[in-house]
Amino acid sequence: MTKMRNSDPDPRQPRLAEFDKAGFSITPSGLDPAVIESIITQLGEVNGAGRRGMLRDPIVKELATSPLLTRIVCQYLPVHPRPVRAIYFDKSPDANWLVAWHQDLTIAVTHQAELPGFGPWSQKDGIIHVQPPASYLEQMVTVRLHLDHADESNGALKVIPGSHRHGRLTPDQIEWHRTNQTEHLCQANRGDILLMRPLILHASARSTVTHHRRILHIEYAGCDLPPELQWNESA
């Protein structure tokens, strides 16, 4: 096998530069239809908006650590990607919600510890969450696996390209981006894989149709937490 010399260009750089400029990308037809059907069958129905702690499910853990996803995600992180949180969403007539423009600012951990730059602390479904310094979020990538077609009619994700490059935003700054920047609808086919930086501004509308919009959301870290903290999930 030919090894890359120190003077050779990193083959990841063009794609990494494009991703870091926009803050998101879509890999078409990344999931095999048989894999999608297996995931849907084994995970069953979702009660409410979403189900957390999904890395503890064997099929989700296997998928999160699969060569397919590892190969895709490793292009955008400085070290080997580590899955640290997974959520299963199903937007349907029985659970149809609107998501306002926001950034993903929290991580899930096992316990609370007083550390400079970490906070505020909160709980979601009994799981401890904290806002880490932005430098940690900048070393993370979120993967959204589309188990159904997603478009404007069923609440596909909307993003504001490049908004992640401005760090943690205040409400006034979010409003400025909404007013002055052009949003992008992340329309996706079944099996497509959306990758995004946690700090990119994103939102979604309510569904206006009766079919499902199922998403398996997996977060990957390219960094370690301080020794006082541990990820709540890890694969």
Overview of this protein structure:
This protein is α+β, with helices and mostly antiparallel strands and 235 residues long. The protein has a single domain (22-221), classed as Jelly Rolls (Sandwich). It contains six helices and 13 strands. The protein has helices at residues 13-22, 33-43, 58-64, 67-73, 134-137, 171-180, and strands spanning 24-27, 50-51, 82-91, 99-102, 107-109, 121-124, 127-130, 140-146, 158-159, 184-185, 193-196, 202-204, 213-221. The strands form three sheets. Strands 1-11-8-13-3-2 form a six-stranded antiparallel β-sheet. Strands 4-12-9-10 form a four-stranded antiparallel β-sheet, with no helix packed on it. A hairpin with a 2-residue loop joins strand 6 (121-124) and strand 7. The radius of gyration is 18 Å and the shape is globular. Residues 1-11 have low confidence and may be disordered.
Key words describing this protein structure:
235 residues; alpha+beta; Jelly Rolls; 6-stranded antiparallel β-sheet; 4-stranded antiparallel β-sheet; 6 helices; 13 strands; 21% helix; disordered N terminus
Biggest sheet: strands, sense, closure? Answer: 6 strands, antiparallel
Helix content: 10-25%
CATH fold group: Jelly Rolls
How many whole angstroms does the radius of gyration measure?
Answer: 18 Å
Total number of strands: 13
Strand content: 15-25%
> What series of H and E elements makes up the topology?
HEHEHHEEEEEHEEHEEEE
For the record, the CATH architecture stands as Sandwich
Strand order of the largest sheet: 1-11-8-13-3-2
User: How would the global form be characterised?
Assistant: globular
Count the DSSP helices.
6
Class inferred from helices and paired strands: alpha+beta
Give the N-to-C terminal Cα separation. Answer: 29 Å
Question: Which regions contain 5 or more consecutive residues with pLDDT less than 50?
Answer: 1-11
| Overall residue-averaged pLDDT value | 90
CATH superfamily, by name, is q2cbj1_9rhob like domain
